[in-house]
Write a structure and sequence with these properties.
Mean pLDDT: 87
Oligomer: single chain
CATH superfamily: Ferritin, core subunit, four-helix bundle
Structural class: mainly alpha
Number of helices: 6
Helix content: over 70%
Order of helices and strands: HHHHHH
Radius of gyration: 16 Å
Distance between the termini: 20 Å
Length: 170
């Protein structure tokens, strides 16, 4: 776990420092479509974190708390990219379960209610979230040409793939 956290911190640092942006340079370009996708991705990571945090209480299973912590790391990585590109972060100052995107807000309520019914349902919710994340990341990766964004998407996809495997082991 410590190695994984250290690796994630290094990834975050590489994303910020490796972006080629220094204090005196202009903000790198991202299309309005890419900006919207990045904002959605950071909120999707928040959704996963918030749902898993809620399910960690109701399901009383350490897997949910562990993966919720990993989702926070994913949010931090995505937030670093948003900052690099000068994109507003919709997750800042938002309480758990509160989202700028109304679809994600409704999905949060639905997923927590379903996952709170049983441990089996909680794992099914985890599978749904991770499968959705993987599909969204794959779609976004087709449109991103910037190396730092491609790296972020690959990192998030790898994390989601690991989380999916953990939830399927139930």
């Amino acid at each position: 776990m410590k190695m994984r956290m250290m690796a994630s911190l290094l990834v975050g640092a590489a994303l910020v420092w490796g972006s080629g942006v220094s204090a005196g340079t202009a903000t790198p370009y991202a299309s309005s479509s890419l900006k919207a996708q990045l904002q959605y991705i950071v909120e999707e990571e928040k959704l996963a974190r918030d749902v898993y945090t809620a399910l960690a209480v109701s399901a009383v299973n350490p897997r949910f708390a562990d993966i919720a912590r990993a989702e926070q790391i994913h949010m931090n990585e995505a937030s670093a990219i948003l900052k690099t590109y000068g994109i507003w972060n919709p997750t800042l100052t938002r309480a758990p379960g509160v989202f700028y995107n109304k679809t994600l807000a409704n999905l949060y309520t639905t997923l927590v209610a379903k996952g709170s019914q049983s441990l089996f349902d909680a794992y099914a919710v985890g599978v749904t979230i991770e499968q959705t994340d993987i599909a969204d990341l794959a779609t976004m990766a087709k449109n991103a040409t910037q190396a730092d964004i491609q790296y972020l998407l690959a990192s998030l996809k790898a994390g989601s793939t690991n989380h999916l495997a953990a939830f399927k082991r139930y």
